[in-house]
Specification:
Blueprint: H1 28-37, H2 41-44, H3 61-73, H4 79-88, H5 90-95, H6 103-112, H7 114-130, H8 158-183, H9 195-203
């Protein structure tokens, strides 16, 4: 018996003629297509919706917006990561019609259309709720507490502050008695020790 073997990389394959054939009919990216194609980007506030008559042609905002909504659903936030997805992710390649914008172009698009993004994402979430596309099975809040890199003597918590306070309060009579003994001359006063040092010795 042998292991499951794949196809050799040098083997010629009869691949689908369309990139879109690699994406399933129920894939969420098709919903992104329909949603963005139905938007009035100029009314939403996006810049450069109409191409300039002169200069180098720019990317159509519809394509870049599809890329960002795809990232919103798939937890992609970095513009450099978006650039990688444009070269390797078949879903993104199909949505952008094999366009491959650089990360700087992607970043500039987000910066120049910040207010328009808020409106579009709000409409997107409302539409998903209306169509019952959000599962909403679980709601969780995660929190992490990380102690600083310092010594235990310099690390304080609410519980840890109560213990030394009680300990020091109970030690005060002993400290004061010893201090009064030194002050009345009944005990030699060590010059190298101050009151704070006495306090630390007793509480330790």
């Amino acid at each position: 018996m042998t292991h499951i073997s794949g196809t050799e990389r040098s083997q010629l394959l009869l691949l689908p003629e369309r990139v879109d054939d690699y994406v399933g009919t129920d894939n969420p990216v098709r919903f992104i297509d329909d949603f963005v194609d139905g938007l009035d980007l100029e009314k939403a506030g996006f810049t450069r919706v109409e191409a300039e008559a002169t200069g180098r042609p720019g990317y159509y905002p519809v394509d870049l917006l599809k890329l960002y909504i795809y990232g919103y659903l798939n937890r992609v936030r970095s513009s450099r990561r978006f650039e990688v997805e444009c070269h390797s992710n078949i879903e993104v390649i199909g949505r952008l019609r094999q366009l491959k914008p650089e990360f700087k172009t992607i970043t500039d698009f987000r910066r120049d259309n910040r207010s328009a993004f808020k409106k579009v994402f709000r409409e997107f979430v409302l539409l998903c709720r209306k169509l019952d596309l959000f599962g909403r099975e679980l709601f969780a809040v995660d929190g992490t507490k990380i102690k600083a890199v310092n010594s235990k003597d310099r690390n304080f918590t609410k519980k840890g502050l109560v213990r030394p306070s009680n300990k020091q309060t109970n030690a005060l009579p002993i400290i004061l008695n010893k201090w009064m003994t030194v002050m009345t001359g009944k005990m030699a006063y060590p010059r190298q020790l101050a009151f704070g040092r006495w306090f630390q010795i007793v509480t330790d």
